[in-house]
Amino acid sequence: MAESAPYPTHLQLFLGMQQVALSSFGGGLSAWSERIVVEDRQWMNKEEFITGLTVARLFPGPNQINMAVYIGSRFHGLSGAVSALLGILLLPFSVLMVLGLSYYYLHETLAVDRVLAGVITASAGMALSMGFKIAGVYTRDPVAMLLAGGSFIAMSVFHVRLIPLVLVAAPLAMAWYWPRGEQQR
């Protein structure tokens, strides 16, 4: 955790995760999460955030739900995880239900179709933004670049499925990055 940042309360975790969830529709949550947690609220530094995001992606389920649980539990254990989880789910779920009902009745309207096309484009841009923001951390680590490049080539060129790739790459990454105290890798 960044030294200058105050320790977030349960309410701050709830509101912070709610801000993450309400800041993005249709994608881009990782970028908003990084902006709110690292840049605005300074609860974590960039490396801690990337570590959490990596852990969140290893577990089944939506990445940002897992990330909210990770962030909340980091500060307040189980009760913090529940606060952050409620923050990222409660109001957005309610809004989604209202939007779903609205779409059900208005889906044939051209204006609704055009708005959704714009939202999809914006979310793709947010995903790219997140990739460029965290790229600096990875470019300083040749092993991370090797793992990322190897995974990309395995999936795109050799059509390796995600689960077998994770079953091979994850143990290699864990073995390399496992904390070793004061020893250097």
Give structural notes.
The chain is an all-alpha fold and 185 residues long. The protein is 78% helix and 0% strand. It contains seven helices and no strands. The protein is globular. The mean pLDDT is 86.
| Residue share in β-strands | under 5%
Q: Whole-Å distance between the termini?
A: 23 Å
Instruction: Provide mean pLDDT, rounded.
Output: 86
Record field, number of beta strands:
0
Helices, by number, come to: 7
By secondary-structure content and strand pairing, the structural class works out as: mainly alpha
User: Helical amount among residues, as a percent range?
Assistant: over 70%
What is the H/E string? HHHHHHH
How large is the radius of gyration? 19 Å
- Report the biggest beta sheet as strand number plus sense, adding barrel if it closes: none
Low-confidence stretches: none
3D shape:
globular
Characteristic key phrases:
mainly alpha
Structure at a glance:
The chain is mainly α and about 180 residues long.
SSE layout and pairings?
Elements lengths: L9 H14 L5 H12 L5 H13 L4 H44 L3 H30 L2 H15 L5 H16 L8
